[in-house]
Structures are given as structure tokens and as C-alpha cells.
Design brief:
Elements lengths: L5 E5 L9 H11 L9 E5 L5 H8 L4 E5 L16 H6 L4 E4 L2 H6 L4 H13 L3 E6 L3 H5 L3 H13 L9 E4 L13 H19 L2 H4 L1 E5 L7 H5 L6 E4 L6 H12 L2
Parallel strand pairs: 1-2, 1-8, 2-3, 3-4, 4-5, 5-6, 6-7, 7-8
Helix pairs in contact: 1-2, 1-11, 5-7, 7-8
Bound molecules: 2-phosphoglycolic acid (PGA).
């Protein structure tokens, strides 16, 4: 059974609020006429653009997500953004534990678990990111790392929780080095197996996105894999024509 693909863009710390309307105009143009029953679309945008993006995203039925959240509902955490603040402006999805958050902001398996737990408690859908570094892969530790990262997440979810996993091999992010279709499938099947061991049929409905140098030229091969249910796209989501092309191709599989 193939799950409905989710094509998610992650703008990271790029673009400007003033450019958001034109982005969605171009995305609307690039996705005109495609069968939206066949693909879900999401964009994770910088916090200052959330409201503008949410307004314009309606034109292309895209979900707007934030790129990270704090696990506490409020308090003395200068610079952070809480889940109730996001809910208050109508945001219902977030990325959690992106490798750049793990690498540059000391996010760990336990903080990723705490954020995942809070998101689910507040009915925010988390896209939780996992993935091994190049050194870990070369040392033959891919499965060990993925199991450790997944165990931390699975400790805080339940059999009926609504969440998404993004497998992003760190060595393929922003490097132009996409994992081969077979490498992606192997990791995705492993992750789904870990979920199945603990939660049985949850594994069948869980969407596992692949991330790392995805673009329109490689999306079809990735989505043809049995356990690849979409993509998390960084650099190639900044150009709405290219992102729209990727969405269109995903809708025609
Ligand atoms: P990339 O980034 O598509 O630019 O490799 C992917 C990601 O970090 O989500």
C-alpha cells in the first residue's frame, strides 16, 4: 500500500517576508491543474513569515509549518517560540530535530523527544528528523544511529499519534550528494521496521520522508521506492518553479 506523498519544503534561514506573496504566485502557476488528491504540500518557513505564508498558502492548499519549537508552553526562554503561540496564529505543523538544529544548537535525542512529546500533547503534527553522519555511515553505524534516534522518539509517541519521520542522511544535506534510491529505501525500510516492532500497524500509515539534495530531477526515483513517502527539500524549495515542478511530478506517480 502506497501512502499519499508529502512534498515538504524547508526554507531554513532564507528569503524575506516581502517576497512571500510572489513565491506563492509562482508556486500556484507551477502547480496549476495537478491532482491535489495525489500529493500533500508543506512549507516550513522562518517564524517572522508564518502569518504571511499561511495567508498566501491557501492558494495552493499548502500546509505552513515552523522549523522548530520549544517544549515548554511559556516561561523565561528568551528568543524561543512556544506551541501555544503557534496555535494562536493557526500553525499546526512543525519540524523537530533537523540535523542543523542538532549540529549547531545542541539538540539531542532527549530534547528532540521532549519537543515531540509536547507537540503531540498540543495537537501539533511534528515532522521529526533523523539521520546518520558520513562518519557514522562509513563506520557501519547507520542502523545503530537510526535505532537510537528512533527509540528516543518512539518512547514519547503512542500507537494512535499523528507524526511524520524525515530520514535525512547528514552527508546528503546541502551537498548535492543525494542518497541513491536503494540507499534511501534501505534506511526507510529499517526505520519502518523499528516502528513496526514497537507499534505494529502504525508503521503502515507512518509517512517517512527522504531529505538531502532532493529536486525535480531525482524525486521520481525516490518516490518509486516502497518505503519513501515524500521528501523534505531545502535548497531546491527556494525556487517556486523548481519546487512546483517537484510537486507536480510527485502527483503524477
Ligand atoms: P537540501 O536540504 O535539500 O538543501 O539538501 C534538506 C534539508 O536539510 O531538509
Amino acid at each position: 500500500m502506497k501512502r499519499k506523498p508529502l512534498i515538504a519544503g524547508n526554507w531554513k534561514m532564507n528569503l524575506l517576508n516581502s517576497k512571500v506573496p510572489a513565491y506563492f504566485t509562482a508556486l500556484e502557476e507551477a502547480t496549476r491543474g495537478i491532482d491535489r488528491q495525489k500529493v500533500d504540500v508543506l512549507l516550513a518557513v522562518p517564524a517572522p513569515f508564518l502569518t504571511t505564508a499561511r495567508e498566501h498558502a491557501q492558494r495552493v492548499q499548502a500546509i505552513i509549518a515552523t522549523q522548530t519549537i520549544h517544549d515548554k508552553a511559556d516561561g523565561a526562554f528568551t528568543g524561543e517560540i512556544s506551541i501555544p503561540m503557534l496555535q494562536d496564529i493557526g500553525i499546526r505543523w512543525t519540524l523537530i530535530g533537523h540535523s542543523e538544529r542538532r549540529q549547531f544548537y545542541n539538540e539531542s535525542d532527549s530534547s528532540v523527544a521532549a519537543k515531540t512529546k509536547s507537540s503531540l500533547a498540543f495537537d501539533i503534527h511534528p515532522i521529526v528528523c533523523v539521520g546518520e553522519t558520513r562518519g557514522e555511515r562509513e563506520a557501519g553505524k547507520m542502523e545503530e544511529v537510526l535505532r537510537r534516534q528512533m527509540d528516543a522518539i518512539l518512547d514519547v509517541v503512542e500507537g494512535n499519534s499523528e507524526f511524520t519521520i524525515a530520514y535525512e542522511p547528514v552527508w546528503a544535506i546541502g551537498t548535492g550528494l543525494v542518497a541513491s534510491d536503494a540507499q534511501a529505501q534501505e534506511a526507510h525500510a529499517f526505520i519502518r521496521g523499528v516502528v513496526r516492532q514497537k507499534f505494529g500497524s502504525l508503521a503502515d500509515r507512518l509517512r517517512i520522508l527522504y531529505g538531502g539534495s532532493v529536486k525535480s530531477s531525482n524525486i521520481q526515483g525516490l518516490l518509486a521506492q516502497a518505503d519513501v513517502d515524500g521528501a523534505l527539500i531545502g535548497g531546491a524549495s527556494l525556487d517556486p518553479a523548481e519546487f512546483g515542478k517537484t510537486v507536480s511530478l510527485a502527483s503524477s506517480i
